[in-house]
């Protein structure tokens, strides 16, 4: 691929930052973050080095699922601002080299969406078929619900017409019927609207559920052949409207099944979150043994050249461990969330990383260094860059959706509203704003914020991390992961120590015989001998990135 093509595929080595406008920065003192507030802080995001901003749902919503229940796909929740504010934000972000993507939530609407209101009013409603109904009592689906604390069936009886409607998530979120061509037309029209306003694509919610046809078979998607045909058509539509726009999909499935969502030629989702690697990372951390992660990465299938994995440590939901066998999940629970109040839905954790690691700065940095050095495009959830914690008293997933901590002032500088008026309580237990905030860290070159900023910039300097071929380098320490990413004659070697014991190791690097390994974080360089070996040391929880140069190369 030529340099030009490389830069077209900007998502291959982007740095994505996810935030919820309502918890980021409140500009008008009503206790709720808003678009003008985010706009005010855009230089903070730019300074971090982020190249893609993912906005969680900001549409009008009754907020039964943190905005993932939408009543108007063309609007902006009035608590957050206006459409004009969205356009201003996109422009401000673009001016700083940051693309903006929005959550696309079309598996379901809110039950208060006018379509559903019309659909439930009568069986003859022209909107009835926008949703999925059944007239006879449903079977027991309690084992399939996504939120077992709130739901016990995927079907809800609607009294008005005496039929049941299907909802994969909460009952307040009826599933759209994508086998209806009118629904599909509405979806593309709405995507076109946001692309036209300047969005660079979408984070697509719940993709496997979106394209499932509810046992209706292939004819349900007439014209597309099969569900993946529909996903392909969405990608092709998006690309026609905006050649650089992406679909970043949520597909929490085993690798082999995930692969199908890229499409054999990379013509479905552009990127997918790396849920399997993330879950094995936590198992590796719990065991102080890199093996679970190494094994997962070795099984990670090759993907089409323009496709990409979106790597992450934390997202806005429960930290799901659903793809680990129960005994391994229990190991992670024991290590990082032993109390019931720290766990959620029997499959995940309510915590952010720093409290799970008892605030150990070296270990936290090791994890972020690893995140940025693994092949893929890293995604940060707001507040990770300063080491924010959670609020375990908050219900469910709200524990990690606490307001951004800007200063040590009341409400962490997030809002001037009285505390009880805030959209959500602040993080606590030693990780609140008095301990952790942007202002203190911005001026401190030793802070986590400075470290993560440096990681972001080093990652951007090293396209081989996003583009390259990944290889695990064998070495004798179970606690260590050593890997290389190689691309177009360039290579980065990264070494990470999952254990608290310092190690010295000899790495066999036949491809780099006679090269100098230059430490990208200012540590000592090291030479690869003529027999192809290099001696390296790491502190407990140590990490290093080294780039391989021949002596005659320009060291840039
Ligand atoms: C996945 C989102 O990440 C989650 O927050 C939401 O509740 C469900 N999809 C339903 O939209």
Automatic annotation (TrEMBL):
<keyword id="KW-0119">Carbohydrate metabolism</keyword>
<dbReference type="InterPro" id="IPR054049">
    <property type="entry name" value="SupH-like_C"/>
</dbReference>
<keyword id="KW-0413">Isomerase</keyword>
<comment type="similarity">
    <text>Belongs to the glycosyl hydrolase 13 family.</text>
</comment>
<dbReference type="Pfam" id="PF22157">
    <property type="entry name" value="SupH-like_C"/>
</dbReference>
<dbReference type="InterPro" id="IPR045857">
    <property type="entry name" value="O16G_dom_2"/>
</dbReference>
<keyword id="KW-0378">Hydrolase</keyword>
<dbReference type="InterPro" id="IPR006046">
    <property type="entry name" value="Alpha_amylase"/>
</dbReference>
<dbReference type="GO" id="GO:0004556">
    <property type="term" value="F:alpha-amylase activity"/>
</dbReference>
<dbReference type="Pfam" id="PF00128">
    <property type="entry name" value="Alpha-amylase"/>
</dbReference>
<dbReference type="GO" id="GO:0005975">
    <property type="term" value="P:carbohydrate metabolic process"/>
</dbReference>
<dbReference type="InterPro" id="IPR013780">
    <property type="entry name" value="Glyco_hydro_b"/>
</dbReference>
<protein>
    <recommendedName>
        <fullName>Alpha-amylase</fullName>
        <ecNumber>3.2.1.1</ecNumber>
    </recommendedName>
</protein>
<dbReference type="GO" id="GO:0043169">
    <property type="term" value="F:cation binding"/>
</dbReference>
<dbReference type="GO" id="GO:0016853">
    <property type="term" value="F:isomerase activity"/>
</dbReference>
<keyword id="KW-0326">Glycosidase</keyword>
<dbReference type="InterPro" id="IPR017853">
    <property type="entry name" value="GH"/>
</dbReference>
<dbReference type="InterPro" id="IPR006047">
    <property type="entry name" value="GH13_cat_dom"/>
</dbReference>
<feature type="domain" description="Glycosyl hydrolase family 13 catalytic">
    <location>
        <begin position="18"/>
        <end position="442"/>
    </location>
</feature>
């Amino acid at each position: 691929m030529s340099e030009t093509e490389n830069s077209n595929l900007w998502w291959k080595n982007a740095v994505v930052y996810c935030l919820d406008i309502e918890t980021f920065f409140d500009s008008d003192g009503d206790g709720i973050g808003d678009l003008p507030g985010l706009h005010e802080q855009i230089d903070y995001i730019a300074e971090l080095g982020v190249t893609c901003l993912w906005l969680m749902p900001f549409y009008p919503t009754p907020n039964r699922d943190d905005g993932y229940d939408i009543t108007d796909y063309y609007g902006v929740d009035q608590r957050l601002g206006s459409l004009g504010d969205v356009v201003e934000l996109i422009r401000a972000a673009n001016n700083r080299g940051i693309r903006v993507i929005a959550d696309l939530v079309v598996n379901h609407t809110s039950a208060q969406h006018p379509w559903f209101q019309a659909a439930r009013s009568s069986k003859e409603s022209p909107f009835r078929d926008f949703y999925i109904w059944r007239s006879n009592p449903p079977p027991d689906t309690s084992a399939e619900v996504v939120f077992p604390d709130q739901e016990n069936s995927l079907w809800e009886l609607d009294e008005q017409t005496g039929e049941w409607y299907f909802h994969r998530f909460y009952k307040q979120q009826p599933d759209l019927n994508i086998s209806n061509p009118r629904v599909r037309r509405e979806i593309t029209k709405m995507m076109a609207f946001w692309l036209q306003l300047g969005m660079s694509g979408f984070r697509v919610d719940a993709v496997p559920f979106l394209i499932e046809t509810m046992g209706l078979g292939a004819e349900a998607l007439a014209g597309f052949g099969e569900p993946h045909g529909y996903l392909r058509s969405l990608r092709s539509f998006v690309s026609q409207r905006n050649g650089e726009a992406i679909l970043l999909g949520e597909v929490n499935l085993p690798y082999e099944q995930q692969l199908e969502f890229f499409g054999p030629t990379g013509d479905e989702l552009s990127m997918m979150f790396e849920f399997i690697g993330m879950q094995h990372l936590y198992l590796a951390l719990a065991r102080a043994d890199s093996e679970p992660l190494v094994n997962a990465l070795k099984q990670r299938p090759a993907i089409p050249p323009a496709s990409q994995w979106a790597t992450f440590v934390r997202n806005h939901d429960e930290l799901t461990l659903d793809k680990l066998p129960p005994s391994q999940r229990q190991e992670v629970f024991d290590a990082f969330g032993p109390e019931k109040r720290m766990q959620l839905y029997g499959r995940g954790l309510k915590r952010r990383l720093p409290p799970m690691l008892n605030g150990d700065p070296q270990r936290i940095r090791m994890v972020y260094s690893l995140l940025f050095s693994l092949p893929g495009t890293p995604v940060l959830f707001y507040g990770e860059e300063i080491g924010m914690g959670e609020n375990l008293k908050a219900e469910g997933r709200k524990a990690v959706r606490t307001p951004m901590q800007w200063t040590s002032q009341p409400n962490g500088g997030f809002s001037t509203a009285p505390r009880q008026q805030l959209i959500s309580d602040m993080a606590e237990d030693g990780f609140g704003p008095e301990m952790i905030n942007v202002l203190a860290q911005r001026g401190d070159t030793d802070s986590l914020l400075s470290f993560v900023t440096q990681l972001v910039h080093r990652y951007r300097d090293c396209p081989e991390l996003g583009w390259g071929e990944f290889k695990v380098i064998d070495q004798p320490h179970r606690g260590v992961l050593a890997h290389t990413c190689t691309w177009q004659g360039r290579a980065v070697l990264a070494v990470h120590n999952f254990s608290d014991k310092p190690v010295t190791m000899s790495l066999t690097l036949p491809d780099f015989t006679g090269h100098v390994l230059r430490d990208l974080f200012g540590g000592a360089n090291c030479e690869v001998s003529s027999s192809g070996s290099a001696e390296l040391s790491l502190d407990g929880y140590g990490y290093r990135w080294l780039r391989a140069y021949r002596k005659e190369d320009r060291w840039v």
